[in-house]
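User: These chains co-purify. Model them together.
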Amino acid sequence: MRPPNAIFTAPLRPGRNGRSWPGFRDAPEGTGDSHLQEPIRDHLFGYQQAFAHPLSVTIVVGVLVGLAVSGTLIVALRRLISEASYADAFRRWRSWCWLVGVIFLPVLAGALWTMLAVMVLSLLCFREYARATGLFREKTICAVVALGIVLVTFAAVDHWQDDVLFFALGPLVGALIVIVGIPADRPKGFIQRVALGVLGFALLGFSLGYISNMANVSNLGGTGIDYRPLILLLIVAVELNDLLASLIGRTLGHKPILPKTNPRKTWGGAIGAAVLTTSLVAVAGGWLFRGTPVAEPGWLIGLGLLVSLLGQLGDLTLASIKRDVGIEDVGATLPGHGGLLDRFDGLVLVPPAVYHYLSLALGDSGPLGSEGPHRILTGGWGG
Amino acid sequence: MDDWRLQPARDLELAGADRHRSYQRESGLVANVARFAWWSMIRASLKLLHRLEIHGRENLPGSPSFVLVANHASHLDALVLGATLPLRLRDQLFPLAAGDVFFHTPALAAFSATVLNALPVWRKKVGAHAIKQLRSRLIDEPSIYILFPEGGRTRNGSMRPFKSGIGMMTAGTRIPVVPCYLEGTFEAFPAETLIPRLHKVTVRIGTPRTFEHLENRRPGWDEVSRCLEHDVKSLAYSLDAPTTTTTTTTTTTTSIRN
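Assistant: Joint model of the two components:
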């Protein structure tokens, strides 16, 4: 009943039906209070470790410097560009400032905040997706997808051994979406409704949920490094990849990859972004994974290519959805960018691939996050 | 509900207060749940605190679109009329509310749109375009409007003449308009007070009418408002008579019952 993990050394607090809750330990007698075990509390809420790894510092400082420089440039160029261009650039820059804050702060603050932030991001992105495709009119399917996103977060926080609960939720929530579509007795359009629900959950609930699952890393490949530099690297690399593809595409590229899907996405931009992002991820990864089996040039270049190519394919996935329904942006949440999903589209395919790739590469030290702690909320419930 | 529409929300390009104030607004799951909680609470509190009594519920059309019109004495009125409808219709129910009161600030607009599902009527600048949008929405998709044709709350308890806005929305359409009379809301929550009093409230629902045969022009609009004003006053005068026997006829209107 008690998970085989060295972290659970304190006396266990009995739960209902006499079961134990390993995440808690008894408070000093007479206080009537209980406390999370210290290692779990540190992992979930321990902001003191925010800058424990120099890569986290480098990424945060680099992004802040980037924002400061770009902001200064926009103001300096004000007289040289039209008022409309200036207003648009400034709106985009201001949105970037907000985004950096709401992404970096939870990741740096602790694993629980990261998981909750990913849950909110998933829910907001799904809302935009549902409104863009018309799925929002199907309230029951939307409710099941929202429930699935909450359950994915629960599974990530709870962290079963080998992530069996997390992985089970993919097919189970998918099946539930199919099931709840049946009683409406509206066979016409059944495939479309259910398929849109399953696609929405797969891309925005389960796939983004892998970032939550990665937040369980507390001892990466036995090096003592936690999840922060890995998740920061992943998000920044994907966003930079998107930005590079756009910038290089505008200056060097002319031939669109898929003119009907996204005429602005060019071969030049895609190749340029792939080269630069792969180099960046390989160098940063070499630093992060030092002392683990991943720190081999082959694995590192593979990781960089995975991030860059899947990032661009994620972008084209959303572009395909938008062209299908005939819209330019999926929302208007972020001034200058469109919707949240317009900004995070590159991220939707990357997390599962990176998780499984790194788990494979880590070999005996993997899979990612296997070091525990496990069953934080459910304890010994269910055996 | 349609079989399936791969069609984005009409208000997709709007955000924040612009979206909440839009006549094109379409709501999703969060608003649906919020409205369920809101109307459940309102129905329970009206029953408990104001001993709400509803007469003539059988006169309500079985399905949208239709319009409920009534005399206007307090901010309770729209809630009382909303409470006469089944909960399942909460997403199709749109109280038309004063824009300068219910949509003045972004926070108020968010509440009015998400929870009340209200649509704004800008009393000082209500234009033909806004009325046209309201009319189109009523015709194109299942909607229930709650409208107070007096244009504002009474300050002395007596009914004011009906304005022609209701006619601009319904003249020349097959949309049923249901006249209602609210009794006790003036005593429960008059305009100058901040907190409602525990006073009994009664709502009397009359026979619906359609104005399909009237032209969508000034004479038709005036006829609609005149007719409905007469209906609501009749309901007020016939308080002692059983509602189901209430009938009002004019030579230019058609009474229907669902």
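The interface with chain B takes residues 127, 130-134, 136-137, 139, 142-143, 146, 186, 188-189, 192-193, 324-327, 329-333 of chain A (CB under 8 Å).
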